[in-house]
Amino acid sequence: MRVDVVTIFPAFFDVLEVSLLGKARGAGLLDVRVHDLRDYTTDRHRTVDDTPYGGGAGMVMKPEPWGLALDAIVADAGDRPTFIFPAPAGERFSQSTARELSEASHLVFGCGRYEGIDERVFAYAATLGDVRLMSLGDYVLNGGEVASMAMIEAIGRLIPGVVGNPESLVEESHEDGLLEYPSYTKPASWRGHEVPDVLLSGHHGRVAEWRHAQRVERTRERRPDLLPADPEA
Ligand code: ADE
Fold first, then answer.
1. Strands 189-190 and 106-110
2. Which end of the chain has fewer surrounding CB within 10 Å, N or C?
3. What are 91-141's pLDDT values in tens digits?
4. Which of 81, 69, 1 is nearest to 34 (CA)?
């Protein structure tokens, strides 16, 4: 998969060098290219923002540098990518979105700052490929960089070969609508806290039953919104 990122803070993406995704890049599974939006400005001050039409607080990202940056990426790749613009006003990003996007061959993340990007950039991007405005959740970050990093990790680890043991992708939170069961390792007793007996029993059927019950219980406690509505309620 090819991933392009357009940002005024390329250094945010240095962490892609480390860990699992760094290995995926090394193995050629993930081709990430980070672009500094200011390289696509044409004035001496490398200006990327301006005051909003209609007034109001804050600054808006100017469309011209975005147009040049997106043109350059599309000309280089010669395809119709999926553009992802992180924004609190976007559709909600979830595990199913990550799965869907992990099948794409080319994603372009556009990181907005300030009060956002001039709306016409999204319409222009839609002439070059698919456009998705995506929100990580109901809170506001200072810009799209951290949100893009989170999405690149969530999507990247679903690309076949990136996570060594594909089974570890199946039994985890959000893959089937329930939260993950609790995990323990040695020692069996630690600072007065014990590993549940059933896990030491070697009885696979009982372990599976216990884990499923834990998943349901945790989901009910922490994320009741994930459970089907109770018809008795
Ligand atoms: N940019 C700012 N806030 C965001 C959020 N909650 N999700 C995605 N992108 C954002």
1. unpaired
2. C
3. 999 999 999 999 999 999 999 987 899 999 999 999 999 999 999 999 999
4. 69
